[in-house]
Amino acid sequence: MELRINGRPHAVAPEWRDEMLLHVLREHLGLVGAKFGCGMGLCGACTVWLDGAATRSCVLPVGAAVGHELMTIEGLAAADGALHPLQQAWLEAQVPQCGYCQAGQLMSAAALLRQNPAPDEAASAVAMSGHLCRCGTQQRIRGVLIQGRR
Ligand code: FES
């Protein structure tokens, strides 16, 4: 069994088969950008891409990800290290506070912009509605998405 993550193959050991993707990413593969928040698919901290769609990795059995293209926050920047335009916009707007939820927020925002390069307020609200942030960064995130700073 093998996962493709950020364009690279990763072997999945047989004993990991019953684990959730988030656990495999963080504990076995060292990809710790996606975070454990609720573990129930409710907060968005663990969001990664599955075939380009924002997906909660805490509730996705690792076996269900086999045969799909995964991307984590570690794969969002260019191979030469240049930030994704959305990451750059995030920095310029000083979006993060504690930062814990931001990898998941970025993956959902980037997935939205792939589908809709100029989202309006309603589309942004829907796309980001499943992300909890106790620091209150939602307004700045919505501003980045709506103002087209990407
Ligand atoms: Fe996955 Fe909260 S940790 S949605």
TrEMBL record:
<dbReference type="InterPro" id="IPR002888">
    <property type="entry name" value="2Fe-2S-bd"/>
</dbReference>
<protein>
    <submittedName>
        <fullName>(2Fe-2S)-binding protein</fullName>
    </submittedName>
</protein>
<keyword id="KW-0001">2Fe-2S</keyword>
<dbReference type="Pfam" id="PF01799">
    <property type="entry name" value="Fer2_2"/>
</dbReference>
<keyword id="KW-0411">Iron-sulfur</keyword>
<dbReference type="InterPro" id="IPR036010">
    <property type="entry name" value="2Fe-2S_ferredoxin-like_sf"/>
</dbReference>
<dbReference type="InterPro" id="IPR006058">
    <property type="entry name" value="2Fe2S_fd_BS"/>
</dbReference>
<dbReference type="InterPro" id="IPR051452">
    <property type="entry name" value="Diverse_Oxidoreductases"/>
</dbReference>
<dbReference type="Pfam" id="PF00111">
    <property type="entry name" value="Fer2"/>
</dbReference>
<dbReference type="InterPro" id="IPR036884">
    <property type="entry name" value="2Fe-2S-bd_dom_sf"/>
</dbReference>
<dbReference type="InterPro" id="IPR012675">
    <property type="entry name" value="Beta-grasp_dom_sf"/>
</dbReference>
<feature type="domain" description="2Fe-2S ferredoxin-type">
    <location>
        <begin position="1"/>
        <end position="76"/>
    </location>
</feature>
<keyword id="KW-0408">Iron</keyword>
<keyword id="KW-0479">Metal-binding</keyword>
<keyword id="KW-0560">Oxidoreductase</keyword>
<dbReference type="InterPro" id="IPR001041">
    <property type="entry name" value="2Fe-2S_ferredoxin-type"/>
</dbReference>
